[in-house]
Automatic annotation (TrEMBL):
Signal peptide: none annotated. One of its GO terms (biological process) is peptidoglycan biosynthetic process. Cell wall formation. Adds enolpyruvyl to UDP-N-acetylglucosamine. The modification 2-(S-cysteinyl)pyruvic acid O-phosphothioketal is found at residue 134. The lineage of its organism: Bacteria, Bacillati, Actinomycetota, Actinomycetes, Micromonosporales. This is UDP-N-acetylglucosamine 1-carboxyvinyltransferase. Belongs to the EPSP synthase family. MurA subfamily. The keyword Electron transport does not apply. It comes from Actinorhabdospora filicis. The gene is murA. HAMAP family: MurA. GO terms for cellular component: cytoplasm. It comes from the Bacteria. UDP-N-acetyl-alpha-D-glucosamine binds at residues 110, 328, 350.
Length: 456
């Protein structure tokens, strides 16, 4: 009986969580991007480290922010919102959370793992539930755990999650990452700032979101030096205060709309998009034949993306850590590449399984073949391990409508772009569950851009 009602519930959710897309209309108009999801969520965790309240501005209304808000509140942080995306977090009464309260968020995001350092400093212990996030690879947390153990944390892996304790004040470490992982770099930063002594992190990630997190921590009182060659040095301090911060804009969302303009033969002004953080994307965009112009007015500036007419050109590209081409830009770009004349090659070097979404694109008429060899560029970690991590895209392909079940956040947005570019009516399932994790008010933005969509 329970199983039956569960199934009914699942079907109902699936039916409700659908966007009907009448494709074939160029997207035209203006939308605005707010603070980067992958900075905002980390800055929210950093608020736990302060002795006074912190304020973040321009926070997007996305479900990842709701998840981190839930985790903060479960730990006694008072969170309040103001106009224009203002978020105030007061950690004065940080306290141990009930396992059940934390478990509500199990499997929903990768962010909980970053609470380790801040909670160990504030409370001496932490519980981290099973992690979620997009299913784009194994996504191990071995670097996080190794580093935390070096800091002096006791990490106990149990079936319900990780139980951590810090019998003494954590102490600074010398640590070299095997790979410049974004999350592990953030883990070390968030732990080292209040540890005793100096931490030297080698082979660190230096994504703009990490530099912005360093700005947040510096405002709180941290002493962090970013040296050349991916070396970050953190001098531990005894206390940190709250911060007030306006995050960098979301360069993944901005690029997603840029790719949507290209794939639908449209023109989109992405207000808030910042050129400096998107240079690699803009180079590829231009090489493919897309056009853009930068308006760098301090208020109201952004980047205009458009399809200038004529044929798009094929390209060979490779995803990489910053300053390389972001892996999160790959999926929306591939949809645009289905419209280029000739063979494009994309080598994904960050995640081993980030091409799953191409099955649906092929069902819509695209011609994308996957290979386990490292095609083009430098051999990567996945070539020896037989993962289908290179793609050859033959175009141009006329895309036709389909019913699509989206598998994760970025792949979901790509499916949405494909449905908008295709002739006919597609039904895209899972939009609220996945796309709203990282794209604020995408229904409203689609409407503003003249897309013909409906909620049945
Ligand atoms: N890795 C390990 N061991 C670890 C940690 C990472 O082997 O302990 C590997 C991963 O398996 C992966 C590589 O290192 O192959 C890079 O992973 P990274 O740690 O950099 O990724 P992340 O911190 O989990 C963040 C973003 C992702 C983005 C990547 C790369 C957040 C919440 N997520 O993930 O964003 O793709 O960095 O830039 O910041 C998204 O927004 O949709 C998204 C997936």
């Amino acid at each position: 009986m329970l199983a039956l009602s569960d199934t009914c519930l699942k079907e109902r959710v699936l039916k409700e969580d659908v966007l009907v897309v009448h494709g074939g209309t160029p997207l035209r108009g203006e939308i605005r991007v707010r603070g980067a999801k992958n900075l905002v969520s980390k800055a929210m965790v950093a608020a736990v480290l302060g002795e006074t309240a912190s304020t973040l501005y321009d926070v997007p209304a996305i479900s990842d922010v709701e998840i981190v808000t839930g985790l903060l509140e479960a730990h006694g942080v008072r969170v309040s919102t103001g106009p224009e995306g203002e978020l105030v977090m007061d950690p004065a009464n940080v306290t141990r959370a009930a396992v059940d309260e934390i478990n509500v968020h199990a499997g929903s995001s990768r962010i909980p793992i970053l609470f380790c350092g801040p909670l160990l400093h504030r409370l001496g212990h932490a519980f981290i539930p099973d992690l979620g996030g997009c299913k784009i690879g194994d996504r191990p947390i071995d670097f996080h755990i190794q580093a935390l153990r070096e800091f002096g944390a006791v990490v106990d892996k149990r079936p319900d999650g990780l139980h951590l304790s810090a019998p003494q004040r954590l102490r600074g470490i010398k640590y070299e990452l095997e790979y410049p992982s974004v999350g592990s770099t953030e883990q070390v930063l968030l732990t080292a700032v209040l540890a005793d002594g100096v931490t030297e992190l080698r082979n660190a990630a230096v994504e703009p979101e990490i530099i912005d997190l360093i700005c947040v921590l510096q405002k709180m009182g941290a002493i962090i030096k970013v040296h050349t060659d991916r070396v970050i040095e953190i001098q531990g301090v005894d206390r940190l205060t709250g911060y007030s911060h306006r995050p960098i804009p979301d360069r993944i969302e901005a690029a997603s709309w840029g790719a949507a303009a290209l794939a639908t033969h449209g023109e989109i002004f992405v207000r808030g998009a910042k050129q400096a953080d998107m240079m690699t994307f803009l180079n590829v965009y231009r090489s493919v034949g897309g056009a853009f112009s930068v308006d760098d007015s301090p208020v109201g500036g952004g980047i205009r993306f458009w399809h200038p007419g004529g044929e798009l050109q094929p390209v060979a590209l490779e995803t990489d850590v910053h300053p390389g081409l972001m892996t999160d830009w790959q999926q929306p770009l591939v949809v645009a590449l289905t419209q280029a004349r000739g063979l494009s090659i994309v080598h994904e070097t960050v995640y081993e399984r980030r091409f799953g979404y191409t099955t649906e694109l092929n069902q819509m008429g695209a011609n994308i073949q996957l290979y386990s060899e490292c095609l083009g560029g430098t051999p990567c970690r996945w070539g020896r391990r037989n993962f289908l991590h290179s793609a050859v895209i033959a175009g141009p392909s006329k895309l036709h409508a389909a019913d699509l079940q989206i598998p994760d956040l970025r792949a979901g947005f790509s499916h949405l772009i494909a449905a908008l570019a295709a002739e006919g009516t597609s039904r895209v399932y899972g939009v609220d569950r996945y796309i709203s994790r990282g794209y604020e008010n995408f229904d409203g933005k689609l409407e503003a851009l003249g897309a013909r969509t409906e909620r049945p």
